[in-house]
Amino acid sequence: AAASNLIEEEQKKKRKRWDTPTFGIRIPSSYGPGSRTCRVCGNPHGLIRKYGLMCCRQCFRSNAKEIGFIKYR
């Protein structure tokens, strides 16, 4: 009887964890790849972080000359 009560309590704890209102809701992260976006368009993909650019590759290509980058090839 005591063992079955322990098993039931463990199962209730597991169910309670999955029933919480925040489960499945994305919490905004303050670190990692999801926290960084392009400063021009806000796109999180293809981000160039080198030299503190924080600019996606598409925006970098369109603004490279204005920023001061020179294409050698």
UniProtKB/TrEMBL annotation:
Keyword annotations from UniProtKB, A to Z: Ribonucleoprotein, Ribosomal protein
Which GO MF terms does the UniProt record name?
structural constituent of ribosome; zinc ion binding
User: What's an example GO cellular component term for this entry?
Assistant: cytosolic small ribosomal subunit
Classification via Pfam families: Ribosomal_S14
Which GO BP terms apply?
A: cytoplasmic translation
Belongs to which family?
A: Belongs to the universal ribosomal protein uS14 family.
Name the record gives this protein = Ribosomal protein S29
Identify the taxonomic lineage of the organism of origin: Eukaryota, Viridiplantae, Streptophyta, Embryophyta, Tracheophyta
